[in-house]
Amino acid sequence: MGVRTAEEYLSGLRDGRTVFFRGARVDDVTTHPELRVGAEHTAIDFRLAEDPRFRELFTATLPDTHERISRYFLPPRGMQDLLIRREMIETSTREGGGVVLLVKEIGTDALFTLTLVTRRVDEQYGTDYLDRVTRYHAYCQAHDLSLAVAQTDVKGDRSLLPSRQANPDSYVRIVERRPDGIVVRGAKAHTTGTAFTDEVIVLPTRALSEADRDYAVAFAVPVNTKGLTLIASPFGFTGSSAFHHPVSSRHHLVETLTVFDDVFVPNDRVFLAGEWDCAGTLANTFVEFHRYTAISYKPPLCDLLIGAAALIAEYNGVAGASHVREKLTRLIAYTETVRSLTRAAALDCTIVDGIAVPNTMATNIAKQYFAMHYHEAVRDVQDIAGGLVVTGPSEGDWHNPATRGYIERYLGGKQGVSTEDRLRAINLIRDLTASDFGGYHEILAIHAEGSLEAQKITIYRGYDLDRCRALAKQAAGIGG
Amino acid sequence: MGVRTAEEYLSGLRDGRTVFFRGARVDDVTTHPELRVGAEHTAIDFRLAEDPRFRELFTATLPDTHERISRYFLPPRGMQDLLIRREMIETSTREGGGVVLLVKEIGTDALFTLTLVTRRVDEQYGTDYLDRVTRYHAYCQAHDLSLAVAQTDVKGDRSLLPSRQANPDSYVRIVERRPDGIVVRGAKAHTTGTAFTDEVIVLPTRALSEADRDYAVAFAVPVNTKGLTLIASPFGFTGSSAFHHPVSSRHHLVETLTVFDDVFVPNDRVFLAGEWDCAGTLANTFVEFHRYTAISYKPPLCDLLIGAAALIAEYNGVAGASHVREKLTRLIAYTETVRSLTRAAALDCTIVDGIAVPNTMATNIAKQYFAMHYHEAVRDVQDIAGGLVVTGPSEGDWHNPATRGYIERYLGGKQGVSTEDRLRAINLIRDLTASDFGGYHEILAIHAEGSLEAQKITIYRGYDLDRCRALAKQAAGIGG
Amino acid sequence: MGVRTAEEYLSGLRDGRTVFFRGARVDDVTTHPELRVGAEHTAIDFRLAEDPRFRELFTATLPDTHERISRYFLPPRGMQDLLIRREMIETSTREGGGVVLLVKEIGTDALFTLTLVTRRVDEQYGTDYLDRVTRYHAYCQAHDLSLAVAQTDVKGDRSLLPSRQANPDSYVRIVERRPDGIVVRGAKAHTTGTAFTDEVIVLPTRALSEADRDYAVAFAVPVNTKGLTLIASPFGFTGSSAFHHPVSSRHHLVETLTVFDDVFVPNDRVFLAGEWDCAGTLANTFVEFHRYTAISYKPPLCDLLIGAAALIAEYNGVAGASHVREKLTRLIAYTETVRSLTRAAALDCTIVDGIAVPNTMATNIAKQYFAMHYHEAVRDVQDIAGGLVVTGPSEGDWHNPATRGYIERYLGGKQGVSTEDRLRAINLIRDLTASDFGGYHEILAIHAEGSLEAQKITIYRGYDLDRCRALAKQAAGIGG
Amino acid sequence: MGVRTAEEYLSGLRDGRTVFFRGARVDDVTTHPELRVGAEHTAIDFRLAEDPRFRELFTATLPDTHERISRYFLPPRGMQDLLIRREMIETSTREGGGVVLLVKEIGTDALFTLTLVTRRVDEQYGTDYLDRVTRYHAYCQAHDLSLAVAQTDVKGDRSLLPSRQANPDSYVRIVERRPDGIVVRGAKAHTTGTAFTDEVIVLPTRALSEADRDYAVAFAVPVNTKGLTLIASPFGFTGSSAFHHPVSSRHHLVETLTVFDDVFVPNDRVFLAGEWDCAGTLANTFVEFHRYTAISYKPPLCDLLIGAAALIAEYNGVAGASHVREKLTRLIAYTETVRSLTRAAALDCTIVDGIAVPNTMATNIAKQYFAMHYHEAVRDVQDIAGGLVVTGPSEGDWHNPATRGYIERYLGGKQGVSTEDRLRAINLIRDLTASDFGGYHEILAIHAEGSLEAQKITIYRGYDLDRCRALAKQAAGIGG
Fold first, then answer.
1. Options 2.40.110.10, 3.20.20.100, 3.20.20.70, 3.40.605.10; CATH of B6-280
2. Distance between CA atoms of A438 and B439, rounded to whole angstroms?
3. How far from each other are the two terminal CA atoms of chain C, in whole angstroms?
């Protein structure tokens, strides 16, 4: 099979899955008036693989079987593969209006992670998890499946370990072990795309103590598995007008609260089940792969912001103003810093068991830099755009003959630019920065793929302070 | 009459005014399902004047007539009056959910400005504008009228003076002079609250050349004046659910594109008509009064953000984390810097013809500081809040028995905090920072009351660089 | 006596005090080739009091005795007094080349503090400290004495209380109690100006536990007291060339390690001796007075930096460049923010027992803001100045006929500016920012009057978070 | 010959060159009490080439002649060579106490540039410059010569082109053309290392107009050439005490004002002479190579700062404080951002005529990022270090028995750390950040290798805004 069409993919989502949205059970996510936007957005992945312009980038032919598969499934073997992977993510995000698709990116981040980590678990515990992972990987690849990853537990009291929580289900856990599999209970928050993927992979979210043994659990299930309920979040859906919401009316991520209500997982889908001292490694290794994905999908959104700012500056007749150039320069440097650091993370990757792991330090400083300064980038774009972003007329006024003339006459920009184009440019900036959708992007910048504090800890721990202190001692003439 | 009730005020808005919203003419702004929120918000001004807790602050008794009037109409005579004015604005904004009312604040800024500047115009030109302004002021005060101010022209090509524009109506201008008045044409952008005020005062937006004589025009008209059309902006209206939109479902500003289609203004309402070399002074003096209003209404919103961040930190059990304290400290210092600078602007006011003008330098650095760092404040609040701000469930899911249990079970915070309270705190943060309404606040921070660049210019020009250069020369031993 | 002349003051410093500098005992600090710069700098205080231009500002006439005294000794009774005090400090610092004199400022900060706090101690413990303080204050005032304050202990291991230190003398302590006084031992770090003052007042540095009883000690002694040794720091002395070091060759602070080697303090000079639970209040109250002094003396240095930057921009012919204006605007806003916040701290003072205490919040945000951004201000000045600041010729080359011609010919700026003036302007910037003296200023910005972290804690604790949380709850619809 | 010893190199500097320093002619730069520090610092380059630990990195064997040469002379052929070059510069700077050697780095930057650009000039003008450059390159390589590059003209009025200056010698120019060569006059500012190199290469500093033909000149001469005078700058020389100045007493750059007083340059040393339209390309191409050198030598200094900060935090017993970790994390991210971007600049190099040119965008954002935030890094280091950096005792006091005991007793840190080690760590921080030498580093950060504004322009111009605008148009639904 290898590569599915977008229609095959969409048809696969009509599988009886349990999805709730705005208080109602959703029969078919691909036809629901709002959720379908998310499904169509995700389907871009499959369309790109069919598109002659992008087919070479997004698919690969297996040397032995000559089967054509989605390139996402190929583990990166070195710098070049990581650079191509970055290019795939940048390209598909650009085609997705600056919104990452996350239909295979995150899932394969998890598959590579599981391949690396279960080998160590097997060595330590004599388990056969790697075999299961390998077979599962082959299955997903062969059927061109889309994959969500559920990692972040709902957590309850953040200062307590899972086993100490008042609610024992604050972290997903094994509630029963059977000969043929395990039964799991709990919920994961912030799972992106679950409503639109075939499968969901579940990983632990943190290091555990021995008492947390039952929380050391990793597995994968089809989304329509019995007991699995998705409560999809409505935030970021701002409306369906292509005039007011040129991007968000077409491109969208949807997160779910992903509830496992005593879900049975057969053994061949279980990848960790009690090996508590491996949970931290599994969680952290995944994060490192996934932050590389993160920093790969940030620059296309930034390019869109830069373009929108440059466009409205031109339309307003202020493209040559020194402060506008200063702000555009700041936006460019911001974007290129992230992009270049991502490439550096590929260059300085580590090869572990034949899989290229992006450089942790470069990945984390890129992610932290992006997150720390995203709001300032938004400010600069809004600053260039002007107040009309939130004081302008609605689409209805534009079409109403009683007001159209006034708007035409009074809201034009510099000569040669139509009022409609100017309004469209302004609407784009509102949609991207000053709306429910813009708010979604702000939160995403800070919280997706780990918080600012998580990245700071990684940066601090990853640097060789002993080396630096030794340099300082030598320079200061301090012996010993 | 002196002080009207809120109901009297609202009833006054049903006067046949021409308001368009979302493509339709609005019959009655006080009953329109969306716009009524704006009217009710503005009405808070009148309710506070009736409220025993606030009556002393918001009203004053005239010594001669013993009439009780809204205190806004009293020109500030010194520091103390400016501090009280600041307190009125801070208090009413706090009662308005962090949203300024702007029902008399900006209008009286304009009245004080006109009083100061028309005296100069009269001296130079032998006109009688000051008399007209004085009578108009008395009229507004006596009838407790609400006032909008329309200043910013739509501008067309920003690099050209009004008289050089391809569209001669890019700035509001006098198209006819009659014995009994003038006829004006053009449009003003970003006029706040026009749909909910009795009157609108029009001021020029910039310094002019002699050729721009017809653009040097200031006047006031009732909002239901013939030829006056308001096109109200829908942005920031996010929805009516008090659960999802705890603040924006109740508090709201509405801006209009304010179109003057050959509006006749009788002479006693005309305050400038051709005195081109006074237009710049009028524009700038108003801005200085109005920026003081601006920096007075910013801290209550910030306090709400601080409170929301502190609350969710507590609910999530991380109130004691050092990074949370660091971020809260940053938010506090940000807020208090603006508040203290505002008080310093009162302390260092200048008394001109008996009217206290807030200190320009302190006012502008406060405004610029607020605007420059607002997005970072938003980032810190969102950072503390967590990703659930945009991945949580909808109100419908909360009320649906099929999902309520899951949400109760899995989205609680630390012990002793109800899941509902936690969701409400998260919804508050979304409403304030990550929504259409949040986007509105971001744009407002940067663009309302003048752009960042305008403030920078004022700061640069307002400082005595000669004095500093002399200090440097003396220190450097440079003679002359 | 009331007001001494500068010569009387200097003569008073020749009192046999024990001062070490660069490894040698100093006989007379007023004639020592380097230290005399510090003494002459401090003497400016006395010269200003004699100067007809400044006499009114710096002195006051006592109503009862008609004695003229230094105004520093008068406790501030309200806002106006605090504003005058600010003006005195700003003025004298400006006359001191941007370097605060600190000859009575800090000492009277301590006297006001002791007046406030010993009243509470006396009430609690039945002691008579307030009487002693009052008499000591009168004595200093009558003899126009200069005063240093030694507060910061050397501290040893910062994580341990005084009584837990391996070295029991890590904090100054009482080692013996006699009927007629106490004997103290220990050392204070960073004491400014001790070598040039008549008296030194010693205060505790932190809150203490009951076990630290002996460390709860405050007192005053003449600097030439037996057992008192000053080890003066040489850092910041860069050289005596007025060409290379136009400011630092004339203006200078000197800090000492102030060692108390079993110093006897008679009872009437002892202001706290064991009342451990009052030590924290004493330490913190002093800090609040003293941070107000701090933020009062910062703007004159900033004005000098602004002037130097504006001057060299003019000399280089780039005064009109947009980036230069942007940077100057940043410097101005920086300076005026501190100055305005200082005035706001006076406006919002608290009157305690008739003494006006500057507003803690405004004082601390001003201090923290200044400290946090001083290095960026330095960067902007250096950026405007150009690389010649550290690549230019020496004074010797300028005077050497073999090179003078080349320098004249090649290092001139725009027409009409002499090469010598340009070099002097560059030298000023080097002296202020890129030299030992510049480094001294950088450290001073961060560490003098308490560290950044100390200010952050004060800001965090000083804000009413409960009020903010209540606002948020109300806005969010959270009951209770 | 291939590789010289350090002694051969130093001996070569005794060649009668004309150097002035502090007003006197210097006979021998290698024995002068101050300048010798600079010569010894530069000599490290030759010592590393002899050192078994570094020999492989710093030298290469020519495949044809088997001659061993300094690797600097090999033009980079691709990413790998650029990464090695970065490693050479980082390593030698680290061995040089955080101070770049700049003995061959900048010279070979110029040689690679000349190779690339003269090929174009020759094609356009039929000249034979490339041959001359090739022979000169071979000569320098064969004799292992050290090279300075003089580029920045003294400029006079910065708003005028060279030919419009009041002083026609404000830019170096050809004053006579002879059959056998040219005669040049003028001066270059900020030339690093000239006093310690065998040769100096001269390049134009900016784009020129046709009228500036005589200013379009590039050439190379031995430093002892007749008519060449160096006026060496004394700034940054702080003193010879290894205790007070652990780094600057041993490592040092020296800049000169480099005066060409009718210097004759024979034809084979002339690389541009009148081809005015190529001057800009030559200037800019050099800058791109040289900014890569710049960003390669910044991280070792930063590592030293990080190490010093971590060390003093440990000695003071505050290494575990959350704010200390926050600041160290900031310093690490700062350093690694520069380092990673440098590696990305190598990865994304462009191969032109077989020479790898580092990526312009990555190079410039790295340089600008470094320069923009260096002062904040200094602040964080000083913040961690504490006030003792400028209030501590001198070396003399440490050795004086009368004070040594007090210092030992009172200035120790946490247990187990000797007072001397603590003082040494503090002295290191003062030397690096709060001294003449520290000031030198601050200015260097901003101005060396081009100003912040120059980098901003390059960043702005280098980005494809058309592509971004097209993205925005497509997203906004704007046709055309």
1. 2.40.110.10
2. 7
3. 65
Amino acid at residue number C97: G
DSSP designation for B158:
T
CATH superfamily of A281-465: Butyryl-CoA Dehydrogenase, subunit A, domain 3 (1.20.140.10)
Average pLDDT over residues A140-151: 98
The answer to whether C328 touches C310, Cβ cutoff 8 Å, is yes
d(CA D359, CA D371): 18
Q: pLDDT category, B157, cuts 50, 70, 90?
A: confident
Cβ separation of D402 and C453 shorter than 8 Å?
no
Neighbours of B119 (CB within 10 A): 15
Map residue C317 onto helix, strand or coil.
coil
Six token digits for residue A84: 């191509």
Query: Distances from the Cα of D412 to the Cαs of B28, C155, C169, D399, D419, in angstroms?
Result: 78, 9, 12, 16, 4
Judged by DSSP in three states, B43 sits in helix
Length of chain D: 480
d(Cα C374, Cα C302) in Å, to the nearest integer? 9
Strands A228-232 and A255-266: antiparallel
In the predicted model, what is the mean pLDDT of residues C203-220? 97
Residue B158 binned pLDDT confidence (cut-offs 50, 70, 90)? confident
Quick check: D311 and A472 CB within 8 A?
yes
Which amino acid is it at C316?
N
Q: Which two tokens stand for residue B379?
A: 């980032």
pLDDT digits (tens, 9 = 90+) for B218-257: 999 999 999 999 999 999 887 889 999 999 999 999 999 9
pTM score, whole prediction: 0.97
CA distance B41 to B30: 11
CB contact under 8 A, D444 and C390: yes
Q: Are B240 and B233 in contact (CB under 8 A)?
A: no
Q: What does the block give as tokens for B222?
A: 């009732």
**Residue ranges of the domains in chain B?**
6-280, 290-467
Angstroms from C395 CA to nearest CA on chain D:
7
Closest partner residue to B20 (CB to CB) among A21, A378, A402 is: A402
**What topology is assigned to C281-467 in CATH?**
Butyryl-CoA Dehydrogenase, subunit A; domain 3 (1.20.140)
Task: Identify the CATH number of the domain defined by range D284-467.
Answer: 1.20.140.10
Strand, helix or coil for residue C418: coil
Helix (H, G, I), strand (E, B) or coil at A451: coil
Contact yes or no for D362/D462 (Cβ under 8 A):
no
From the list A287, D152, D316, B65, the residue with the least C-alpha distance to C189 is D316
Measured from the Cβ of residue C52, the count of other Cβ atoms closer than 10 Å reads 6
Q: In this structure, is the dihedral angle defined by the CA atoms of residues D175, D176, D182 and D183, taken in order, positive or negative?
A: negative
How far apart, in whole angstroms, are the C-alpha atoms of residue A290 and residue A281? 14
ipTM over 0.85: yes
| Structure confidence at residue D1 (pLDDT) | 62
Determine the Cα–Cα distance for residues D258 and D153; give it in Å rounded to an integer.
Answer: 10
In B, which residues are within 8 Å of D323 by CB distance? 322, 326
| Both structure tokens of A205 | 């979210």
Structural tokens at position C81: 């007094």
Q: Is D480 strand, coil or helix?
A: coil
Cβ contacts of D400 on chain C, cutoff 8 Å: 20, 23-24
Contact C323 A323 (CB under 8 A): no
Looking at B316-359, list the stretches that DSSP marks H as alpha helix, in order from N- to C-terminal side. 322-347
Does the domain spanning B290-467 belong to CATH 1.20.140.10? yes
- What is the rounded distance in angstroms from the CA atom of residue A131 to the CA atom of residue B213? 85
Instruction: Determine whether D210 is exposed, middle or buried from the number of CB atoms within 10 Å of its CB (0-12, 13-18, 19+).
Output: exposed
Tokens of residue B112, six digits: 């004080």
Domain C6-272 belongs in CATH node 3.90.190.20: no
